[in-house]
Structures are given as structure tokens and as C-alpha cells.
Amino acid sequence: MGGIGKTTLSKKIYNLIYKEYDKCSYLEDVKSKHLRDVQKQLLYDLCDKDKDVNDDDLNNIKRLTTLKKVLVVIDDVGTTENLIALHDLLVNGERENNKSKIIVTCRNWQILENHVNEVGKVDIKSLEECQAKKLFMFHAYGVEEKMKPNFNVVTDEIVKACAGLPLSIEVMGRFLKTKRCLQIWREALWKLGSAEALGGGRENEVLWKKLRISYDDLEEEEKHMFLDIACFFDGYETNTTFRIGTYRSPTLGLRNLKDRSLIKITKDGYLNMHEQLKDMGQKIAMEQRSRIFIWNPKKTNFVLANKKVEGMSITRCEEKCLLPHQIAKELPNLKLLTMTKTSSS
């Protein structure tokens, strides 16, 4: 998923081992660049040539990877076509005779699966809680400053809310570094849980923009499935999702979401979505409103007036709530309703 640390890790590996190779190249953010520009950078890094790329130059690159020990990192490749073009440029039948290495980072396993076997695949996991807290402390307090006792609880809550996502931890830590007001920290925690930008500069929107890239690349039905899982089906069995959801291609849709690291499926067949992705999905669902609405007790009248609502999740509502049959009567298009920790009368 976005923000898990693919680019950071690949840069770290590159900087650790590049001196062991005759030639090396780090191709950053390939998906946002034209293929010709990426090839030109590769030509410059490996062949010391700074000019427009022609067919002879491309052949020279291929010959070089056979004769020399070469390291190439292809960071964040976005399409199968670009990967094939770069792969064919760097790899030929004799590649196994040398010690060249190619490292590719990507958000979508389907782009890589025909070029990388399972042995060569690394699925980056979220940070453990102790690692996450250490990273947050580094960004929020630096090396020398110590945390004030009254910040202990909110610090633990922020680390837990980040759910091991390095980008989220870094964004929160940097934003709070110069703010030693407990109330500001609590408000920042609330904004994180509501999938809202922290404010104070465009850099604080980077988390949600990076996470949303994978969602925006989905087909329409996959977007609906993602939102349904974020709002209703996280923790449910996949069979339940198939039975309740009205999807044309549910098996293929779940496979695509899984390959894009937007969901995980446990060995027992249960759906699991990262907290930040779930928060983002619920935020998107609330903004759309024409399809799904996440229950907000303060906006009951709006919900009941919106006859298009198809799904509603009532959670932690301690005010007087309508009974399920009353809600169904008011919302004729309602298909999904969950009620947890509510008090109805």
C-alpha cells in the first residue's frame, strides 16, 4: 500500500550496496514519468551518455548488463507496458551468467507476477508497535528531547491510530514536533481518524493523497467494493461479502483489491483492511453520499431525507436511535445496515 515504505527501503538498499557494482541506476517514481525520459536516465547512468535515446543506445544498455555487474532500481512502476519495456532493455538470455541485480517496487502485484517468482517477492508489512513508537518519537521529539509525562496517553493513541504505517507516523510526528499543546495533539488525532488533512501546509495532505492513488486507479465496481469493505465488511468472511454485495465479478474484484494491497484476506477467508485505508474509504463514502452514508447522529434528518442511501453503519450511538424496521421504511433503497453498540428505543 502507499506509504508503507517501498521507496524508502529501496533507497536504503541501493545506498548500502551500490559500491559493489560496476554501474548502477536508481529510477525514481517511474509511473509519473515518460518512458523515454526513464530510458534516457538509464543511458546516462549506465553508459555515461547524455542525449536522446536511439535503438543503438538501447542495445548498448543490454550488452552492458551482460558484460558488467549492474544494479538497477525501478521505483514505483505503474504499468505492465513500462515494466516490460525496461525489463526487456535490461535482461537478455545471458543475464544469469553475471551478478547484475534489478529491484522493482510497485503497488500492484499483477504488474510484477509474470516477471518475478514468489522467491523474489517481498510483501512489506506494517511496523510493529514498538518500532512505530520509536519512529514517531524520532520525528515528534528528535534525539535529545524527552516526552512530557502528560503526553504519554495521547502519544500511545496516535501511534495506535497510525496502525504501523510509516508515512502516517512520519506525517503526524513532523506536524506535532513544534506543538507542545496537549489539545492540539488530541485534535490532530481526531483529524487522522476522520481522514482529514492536518492543515498548516500542503505537505500535511501527502498521506491521504498517496493512499488515494490506488483507489483512484480502480474500476468503478472495484471502487464500490472497496467502499463497502471500508464501511461494512472489514472483518467479515469473503463469502458473506459475495452473498450480500451486488457485484458482477466479486472474486476478480477481491483479487484485484488484494493485489493492490488495499485489502488482506486471512487464511480463514476473512477480510482485513488497514485502519488508514478504512478511514479514507469512509471519508470518500461520506463525501459521495449518493451511495453510502456513515451514520452521524447529529445529521439524522439529512440521512433520512436522502432516499438514495444504500448502506448505513450505526456505531457507538448512545442517543435515541430508530429501530431497524423504521430506518428501512424511511430509506427505501437501503441494502446494508449494521448496528453496533447502540441504544435503540
In short:
The protein has 345 residues and is mainly alpha-helical. It is built from 16 helices and eight strands. The longest helix is centred in the middle third of the chain and has 14 residues, at 220-233.
Uncertain ranges: none
Q: Give the overall silhouette.
A: globular
Termini distance? 42 Å
How is the main sheet built?
3 strands, parallel
Report Rg. 24 Å
In terms of quaternary structure, the protein is single chain
Into which percentage range does the β-strand content fall?
A: 5-15%
Strands, total number: 8
Order of strands, widest sheet: 1-2-3
- Class by helix and strand content? mainly alpha
Query: If you average the pLDDT, what whole number results?
Result: 82
Number of helices: 16
The helix content is 40-55%
Name the helix and strand elements from N-terminus to C-terminus, one letter apiece: HEHHEHEHHHHHHHHHEEHEHEHE
Question: Keywords, please?
Answer:
345 residues; mainly alpha; 3-stranded parallel β-sheet; 16 helices
Walk me through the structure.
The protein is mostly helical. The chain is globular. The longest helix is centred in the middle third of the chain and has 14 residues. 49% of the residues lie in helices and 9% in strands. It has 16 helices and eight strands. Helix 6 crosses helix 7, helix 11 crosses helix 13 and helix 11 crosses helix 14. The protein has a three-stranded parallel β-sheet with strand order 1-2-3, sandwiched between helices. Strands 6-7-8 form a three-stranded parallel β-sheet. It has a two-stranded antiparallel ribbon with strand order 4-5. This is NB-ARC domain-containing protein. InterPro entries: Apaf_helical, Disease_R_plants, NB-ARC, P-loop_NTPase, WH_DNA-bd_sf, WHD_ROQ1-like. Pfam families: NB-ARC, WHD_ROQ1. Keywords: Leucine-rich repeat.
